[in-house]
Amino acid sequence: MIRKLCERLLRCCCRKRGFRYKVALFIVGIVITFYLFIIILNVIENNLEEEQPIFHVYQGEPKDEKLPIIIWWTPFTGDTGSFKQCGQHTCYFTDQRKYISDSRTRAFLFYGSDFKPTDLPLPRSPSHDWGLLHEESPKNNFLFSMEKVMQLFNHTATFRRESDLPLTFQYLESLESLTSKKYFVPTTEKNEKGKILAPLVYLHSDCNTPSERDSYVEELAKYIRVDSYGKCLQNKQLPAHLSDPMKTMVSHEIFSLLSQYKFNIAFENAVCQDYITEKLWRPLTVGSVPIYFGSPRVEDWLPNLQSAILVRNFESPKKLAEYLLKLQADDAAYEQHLEHKIRGQISNKKLIDAMNDREWGINNDQSKKNFIDCFECLVCKRVAENYKRELRNSSPLKFQATLHHYGCPKPVGNFTLKEDSQNWWPELYDKAVYEAQAMENLMQRGTNYTSTDFYQEVINLLENSAVR
Ligand SMILES: *[C@@H]1O[C@H](CO)[C@@H](O)[C@H](O)[C@H]1NC(C)=O
Ligand SMILES: *[C@@H]1O[C@H](CO)[C@@H](O)[C@H](O)[C@H]1NC(C)=O
Ligand SMILES: *[C@@H]1O[C@H](CO)[C@@H](O)[C@H](O)[C@H]1NC(C)=O
């Protein structure tokens, strides 16, 4: 039966050979064009999905009755009101507090350094999520070192790898910048310059810090020469046009200056997991070896095991100086710390993966969004999804921050290792312990409270603890 059918079909087409070929060619041509068209359409569609609708901003008033509203409680973006489309979800972002009573309001966002326990959107409704964005130094606000406070948040973007949108690499431009020889000065040239320059450079202008870094450098400088250009322990002058640290932190001239030194002292102003700044990435980028103190797990993110010399591996500043002087006289040993530049090699897969996964860019990287946009979209997607679930009466997804999304340790004088009456940081940290408790007590009442209420509560707690 099938055979017969085939034969008949063939016969029909075989009658005119030339014609059959033309028809076949025509059909094949159409099929190929059709598939090409589909592929092109797909590519365009994917691109649209990847690029445009994922992040699309437009102005207007929120008229849609089912549109989630997200309020920046601590004004931060200067955005008085705009729609942001994130993938298939859209939210209305605003810093206008009047929307607090709008039934569509689903989240409040806080910028960490501006978060005040006396200025909160209270009483908090069960549908009010809180989001925390904080990439700055933990010394700016010790409240986030308290579990009670971190548990108030549902969504986080902090320097900690455990946060919802980790900002650990906020100062690392790209993997390529680590291997690029743009600023790199070869060892022989550094030896030549070393007849004038010290082996170490120090460029810090924030001199009273929880990490007490200056006291360590002071001690270190007794055993090895340090050129210090910043306001702290200054012994060398920067050219006038480079002297504002905020403006020149990532400038070409500063990079060139630092690249001439064999070692850069890279001490963070506060110690916390994954709080890693340009102090580390700048020397790694220019090809000088960082002498690092800061994040206790920094080795997780170094390009190669020996890419930084870690202060905590040395018993004392004197021992560290002895090691540096040894490297100073042994080029091969010194260069083992520079494999990312000399061999263009990054062996740390964790770092490679983390940077490849990073959605956002820095230094006005036009090919990527910045981390503020990414955080807004993360919150938008989550609350919009929950809003939809709420409207069809299904249970919401849970989002809950923990201490590990921030949680920095109490600052102690790790370098001096003695009582330091000049250092007020531990005291500030202790104060935050009581403030966190006062916040919890007052919020449990389920009403708004005044700053007088708050400070009275802190005093009560302090007095009670003194009695105990
Ligand atoms: C809370 O109370 C303070 C002072 O009583 C007031 O200024 C503020 O607007 C109130 N906040 C809210 C969210 O109601
Ligand atoms: C947000 O956090 C609060 C406080 O921990 C919690 O009560 C609420 O259920 C959380 N919301 C979601 C959507 O998980
Ligand atoms: C600082 O000193 C304390 C107490 O000696 C120690 O527990 C902690 O690990 C030290 N921190 C760092 C980052 O070295």
Automatic annotation (TrEMBL):
Domain (Fucosyltransferase N-terminal) spans 68-168
InterPro entries reported for this sequence: Glyco_tran_10_C, Glyco_tran_10_N, Glyco_trans_10, GT10-like_C_sf
Q: EC number(s) for this protein? A: 2.4.1.-
Q: Which SUPFAM superfamilies does the entry mention?
A: UDP-Glycosyltransferase/glycogen phosphorylase
- Give the UniProt keywords, A-Z: Glycoprotein, Glycosyltransferase, Golgi apparatus, Membrane, Signal-anchor, Transferase, Transmembrane, Transmembrane helix
* This protein's record includes keyword Nucleus: no
TM ranges are 21-44
User: A single Gene Ontology molecular function, please?
Assistant: alpha-(1->3)-fucosyltransferase activity
- What superkingdom heads the lineage? Eukaryota
Name of the top EC class for this enzyme: transferase
The record describes its membrane topology as:
Single-pass type II membrane protein
Which pathway does the UniProt entry assign to this protein?
A: Protein modification; protein glycosylation
Where it sits in the cell: the answer is:
Golgi apparatus, Golgi stack membrane
Where would I find the Fucosyltransferase C-terminal domain in this sequence? 201-351
What are the annotated GO cellular component locations?
A: Golgi cisterna membrane
Q: Name the family.
A: Belongs to the glycosyltransferase 10 family.
| Protein name (record) | Fucosyltransferase
